[in-house]
């Protein structure tokens, strides 16, 4: 534990306050990176709670010559959806999403002549990352208060390797 005089404590607090915006943005970027990667891991693999692909979808993938695994790669055809998943920070908000219309159709499901059952990959990735994010936030806060320098790779490794 570090010993402070009143003057050194005031200086420490000023340093913490000055470094806060940069540290906050770094942490938010890492949260986005984590959720983005978790969402991408779901693409092409049947997840708990998802309905298997319809026979017509499987036949269409076979007809078009797509490679697939035993699950028939749900949400994956040519990689467009997978590679469209991005993360970023807007102010104090982490944004993870896709610019593809198919992302909304798959996440929420559709109704009509050829309904698509909901297969959440973005929302479920955020929900399933909650414990890792909370642990990372605790570590980030401790490092911020102590004004410790933490590299992006250290933070990313710490957040991604947490197991509840």
What does this structure look like?
This protein is mostly helical. It has one domain (20-161). 56% of the residues lie in helices and 6% in strands. The chain has helices at 6-42, 55-63, 80-84, 101-108, 122-128, 130-145, 152-161, and strands at 86-90, 93-97. Strands 1-2 form a two-stranded antiparallel sheet. The chain is elongated. The two termini are 29 Å apart. The model is unreliable at 160-164 (pLDDT under 50).
Contiguous low-pLDDT stretches (5 residues minimum) are 160-164
Instruction: Give the number of DSSP strands.
Output: 2
Structural class: mainly alpha
**How many structural domains are formed by the residues?**
1
Shape: elongated
Major sheet: order of its strands?
1-2
What oligomeric state is this? single chain
> Helix fraction?
55-70%
Strand content: 5-15%
Q: Count of helical segments?
A: 7
Largest β-sheet summary: 2 strands, antiparallel
The string of secondary-structure elements, in order, is HHHEEHHHH
What radius of gyration results from the CA coordinates?
Answer: 21 Å
The averaged pLDDT comes out at 87
What is the straight-line distance between the termini? 29 Å
């Amino acid at each position: 534990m570090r010993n402070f005089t009143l003057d050194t404590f005031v200086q420490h607090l000023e340093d913490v306050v000055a470094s806060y915006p940069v540290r906050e943005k770094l942490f938010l970027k890492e949260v986005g990176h984590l959720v983005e990667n978790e969402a991408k891991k779901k693409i092409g693999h049947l997840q708990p709670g998802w309905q298997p692909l319809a026979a017509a979808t499987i036949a269409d993938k076979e007809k078009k010559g797509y490679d697939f695994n035993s699950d028939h790669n749900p949400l994956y055809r040519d990689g467009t959806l997978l590679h469209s998943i991005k993360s970023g920070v807007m102010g104090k908000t982490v944004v993870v999403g896709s610019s593809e219309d198919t992302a909304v159709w798959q996440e929420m499901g559709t109704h009509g002549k050829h309904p698509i059952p909901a297969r959440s990959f973005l929302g479920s990735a955020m929900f399933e990352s909650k414990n890792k994010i909370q642990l990372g936030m605790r570590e980030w806060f401790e490092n911020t208060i102590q004004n410790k320098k933490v590299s992006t790779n250290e933070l990313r490794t710490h957040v991604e390797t947490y197991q509840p």
